[in-house]
Amino acid sequence: MTLKLFQNKFYFRIGAFLAIALLSGCNTTYEMEVDAITNPALNDAESYVIVPRDPETDINDLRYKETVAYIKTALSGKGMYEALSVQDADMVVEVDYGMEPPRREFKVVEEPVFATIQQPDRIQTVSQRDPKTGRVITYTVRVPGARSRELIGYQERLVSVIVNEKYMELTAKENLFEQSGDIPAQEIWSVRVKNYDENDDLREYLPIMAASIADYVGEDTGTNHSVRLKEKDEVVQFIKRSINKKPEADAFPSEG
Question: Pick from 54, 131, 179, 193: CA 20 to 30 A from residue 107's CA?
Answer without folding.
Answer: 193
